Amino acid sequence: MEKAKANIDYTKTVISIRGLEKSFEDFAVLRGIDLDLHQGENLVVLGRSGSGKSVLIKLISGLLKPDKGTIEVLGKDVCCLSDKELRELRIRMGFSFQSSALYDSMTVRKNLEFPLVRNQKQLGRKEIDAAVESVLDAVGLSQTINQMPAELSGGQRKRIGIARTLILNPEIMLYDEPTGGLDPITCTEINDLINEVQQRYHTSSIIITHDLTCAKSTGDRIAMLIDGKFQRTGSFEEVFETKDERIKPFFDYNFIQ
Questions:
Q1: Minimal CA–CA distance to 66: which of 51, 50, 77?
Q2: CA 163 to CA 158: how far, in whole Å?
Q3: Which of 23, 188, 225, 253 has CB 3.0 to 4.6 Å from 47, enough for a Cys bridge?
């Protein structure tokens, strides 16, 4: 499915990163990066395994502290927030983990109810049921409501994981390797779902991946992370129209071999 034109407001920035540095012992993972995510945009961060993509998401969500630099999310300086303020900010962000992070002992219904019961205690049974049914319909898996995660395919678990983030109506979505470990047909379905979420829920998203098909299918803009810095940023074509030997083999491996 061809990506529909996104309704992006380039005058509004929902995530702003400046001079971000992060090292682990003597290894510098991020070496002073700048990045903006605009309202309504799907931004893909591309890079090889171990390039720091997932570290970036953990820094944005406050799970890690930077060595230097600033991270503003929805107008809040993440590094200066109290634990309570950080929890409140995270409710406004949805996380789609590579593993889907479902509770194996809970049915799909209970997995989806969990964040609502935890964060919106004022909701009654009818409101909870309506929210669960709505997000299941959004990801096309209404029939799985009473199933256990072990009964689902990898692609279905990924979709339920996305549904669980959507149930709190987040303003920002963070996808960590959304197509990792999936077959090509299921990858296409997940890519289409990411675009549907953008259109239906008006989310702004950062998509972490090394899958160029995912990047090309979902990204309104691409940022190529190499050696701890964004070496090229722009449309898919702008990023890969280069003879840079750090970038060209990445494209060749995905699309030629």
A1: 77
A2: 9
A3: 225
Contact 142, 119 (CB under 8 A): no
- What the block records as the tokens of 178 is 């959304």
Give phi and psi for 156, each to the nearest 5.
Answer: -65, -40
For residue 216, give the nearest of 246, 249, 239 by alpha carbon: 239
Rounded distance between C-alpha atoms, residue 81 and residue 88, angstroms: 10
Burial class (CB in 10 A: 0-12, 13-18, 19+), 167: buried
User: 146 CB contacts (<8 Å, ≥6 apart)?
Assistant: 107, 108, 109
| Locus of tokens 């997932």 | 54
Domain boundaries, the chain: 15-92+171-185+204-257, 99-169
Angle CA 51–52–54, to nearest 5: 125
Taking the domain 15-92+171-185+204-257, which CATH number applies? 3.40.50.300
